[in-house]
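Lay summary

Proteins are chains of building blocks that fold into shapes. Our project writes down both the chain and a compact code for its shape. Here are two examples, one after the other.
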Amino acid sequence: LIFDHQTITYNQLLIQVQKLAFVLINDKNIHPGDIICQYMDRSIEMIVGIMGIMMAGATYAPLNTYDPLDRVLSCINQVDSKLVLVNQMSHSNLTSLKVPILNVSEVIESSNYLNDMEIEQLSQVIITSESISHIVFTSGSTGIPKAVQIRHRNFMDYMKTHIIEANDIVLQFTSCSFD
């Protein structure tokens, strides 16, 4: 995985994701279906956060670091987020909001490694195709962002439609990340 001048192997990524998922489940009492917002700019830590949330069976809800803090707080409250993941860069922006936060940077940098039993615990998390994968916030035609839930099956169906064969033609006016 490469981002700017940072590089980690897939094995290192897996180890970091497992550490985060373990902390979410055991230290933060996260259960399948709980909603966790993530407030950070694009980075390797952002990828670790997304994957860690999903490995814990929780629902990922991204927050835009460029949004005003009142909109960010509105999004957090709307989905009743149990926790907000931040990193070193975004941590200080949310301390004034009085929301529960976890600094992914600290989890990743910890020297704790999971043993086989702890890794086995992660494989016991139940996620179905009907589980909510992530939540996106629309721009809100009323000026208030609206949370839209995406199930794992919806996401997989979307990805399947974008597998293009040699002679297929796909017309799409938006980026693949548009809600």
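And here is the second example, written the same way.
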Amino acid sequence: MDEALIGTVLASTLRVATPLLLCALAGLLSERAGVIDIGLEGKMLFAAFAAAAAGAVSGSTTLALAAALGVAVALSWLHGLACVSHRGDQVVSGIAINLVAAGLTVVLGIAWFGQGGQTPPVGPGVRLAPLWPGAGAALGLVLGEGLLGHNAMVYAALALVPAVAWLLFRTRFGLRLRAVGEKAQMVDAAGVSVPRLRYAALTLNGALCALAGSYLVLAQNASFV
């Protein structure tokens, strides 16, 4: 197979897989804690809008990531308020988050920027740059462009897979989190707060969705569309 084709396929695979991988880890944590979360798409969508809006207005990557993190975590807590604190239907709450995100981002985009629901493009200084810009020329298309031509968030997403596995299966927190999802009554009888553990899982869930949403804007696209 041609080297250029291999490098292109490898590079595009890693780029496209990054937000999916982050969302999958987010769903894994909430499911392990006994909270069904089908609102991942809505959180990612709202996080992408928050990152694009904050990045376009402030010109700061840090503020863009912080805005995405705040919005996604807040939505996760809202899901927890409905399902953990008030024992609402988890599927209905997730669908509501998806519907609200799909509609409200467009409304806010029109109200704030007047561009048909879109945001202005973020500047080059806000976007996530590759860690090794000259890797393709120095190391070739497969190793340079395919494996080493990405930004830090791609490698962070790959590193988070063993990190989440270690958290769930090698730590006391992970043991309690899995126990909450499998038999919450036993955890409660042991004197451990079930809602606190579920809110902790939802907080991590929101943070991962924020990374996924901000990646779509700051690494793949220049604006929220």
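What can we say about the second shape? The longest helix spans residues 3-32.
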